[in-house]
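Q: Can someone sanity-check these two? First one:
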Amino acid sequence: MPSTVVHVGLAGLVGVALLADRFDTRAILFIMAATALLDLDTLLGIVVPGTHRAAFHNLWIVLVPALALYWDWKREKSVVRSRWGAYGYRVGWVTLVAVLFAHVLLDAFYNGVNLFWPVHDRFFDLSGKLLVTDQRGLVQTFIELESGGSGTTVSESTARGTTADTHYSTGFDPSRGSDPEPADVERIFPIASSGELFVVTLVGYMAVGYRVLESRYRCD
C-alpha cells in the first residue's frame, strides 16, 4: 500500500501545480502535513479495530470541510477572507484536492478504503487497470459489476468487508487481527512499494524543494 512518504510526496506535487503564484513554504508544508495526518487512523485502528483506512480514509473527510469552506466563501463576513484573503481560499481548496487525490483515492485504488464510513460501513477496493485492446476495446477493471435477481450490483471483488472483519496490516499492527500476536511477526514500514511510486514520490519532493528555493531566492 502507498506509505505516508508517498502520500506526502504526491501532495507536494499537487500543491506545486495548483498553488501557482500563491506558493510559499508555509502553504506547501500545510498541504503536505494535512495529507499525512490521515494516516493517524493507523494508530487509531490499534485501539478501535477496523477503523484503519476508515476513520480518516473516507469521502466525508473532504466533503464536509469543502462545504464549510464554500459556505464561508459565500458569507458577507467570511472568516477565511477576513484573516487570510484570497490566499486562504487557495490554500484551503488545494489542500482538499491533495487530500482527496493524493491520499483517499490513491489508497482506494490501491487495496481499498472505507469510502462512506460511518454512514455506510463497507470497504471498496478499486484496484484495477484501464486499457484498450484490438479485440475487447476499452477495458476497465476498477469497478466490477455483476447481474443477479436483485439487479446489477458491485461485485465482491470491489466491495469488500466491513470494519468488523477487515484488517490492513501495518508496521504498528501487523497481526491481521490475530490474538495473541505471533512473537516472530515482521513489522514492515514501507517507503515505496513499487518503482512507479518511488519515481512519483521523488519527483514530488524534488519539485517542492525547487519551488521553496526559488521562492526564497526571489524574496532575497
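And here is the second, same format, sequence then C-alpha cells:
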Amino acid sequence: MDDQQVTEDRVLGGRVRLRQKPDGYRAGMDAALLAAACDALPDQRVLEPGCGVGGALLAAATRRPDALFQGVERDSAAAALAAGNAALNGLADRVAIREGDVEAGFRALALPVFDAVMTNPPFFDDPAVLRAPAPAKSGAWMADGGLSAWTSFCLKAVREGGTITLIHRADRLADILALLAPKAGSFKIRPIAPFADAPAKRVIVRAVKTGKAPLVLLPPLVLHDREGGKHSARAEAILRGEAALDW
C-alpha cells in the first residue's frame, strides 16, 4: 500500500509501530485493553479473529515474547497491513496473518485448534442501530452473522481447557454469557468504566472451554479521572505496556 494512504502510529509506549489507513477503523483503547488481557504462556498459540491491521495482536505479541500468534482478517487491505506491521516490528517469525472470514467458520481455515483466542467482535448486528457509519469502517462495526457467529468460531477454535477472551459493549454481557455457556465456563468479567462514578461501557470477558468454576466479577478498570491527566494512572500504565490486566 502506498505510504500516502497510511499513517504510522506508535502504541504500547512506542514499542509497537502501527501502519493503518487514516479513514478506516483504527486500533485504539479496546485493542490496547485486549492485548493487556492476553496472558499466554511460553510456546502457547493464540488466535485473533478479526485482527484488523494488528493493533491488539502485535501489542500482545510484544507483551508475550515467547508465545505464537495467528491473526485472521477478512478485509484484504487490512490483512496486508497487518502482515506488513508484523514485519515492521520484527515479529514475522511469531505472528502470522491469514485472510479469512469468521462467517465461514473455523474449519474453513484448516488450522489446528489454539490454546487461546482473543477477539474484539464487531459491536453491532443490526445496521439500523448505526447512524450511517463510514463505509470504510462499517465492516469493523457490523457483525454480518451476529455475535453468535463470533462466539461459535471462538469455541471451535480453542482446545478444551483453553481460554476465550473478548472485549465488547457492556450491554451485551448477558448475550455473551448465554452464547458461550453451552460449551464454556469459569467466567471472569472485568468491567471497563470511563470514570469511577459512571457505569461501565465495556466488559472484558474471559471464559475457559469446558470450565466449571463459579463466575467471578472482578474490580473495574477506571479509564479516566475527573481531575488530572487524560487517563487514570492504571490505565496509562496499561497503555504504555507497564502493566497488564491480570486474571
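A (reply): Looked at the second one. The chain is about 25% helix and 25% strand. The mean pLDDT is 91.
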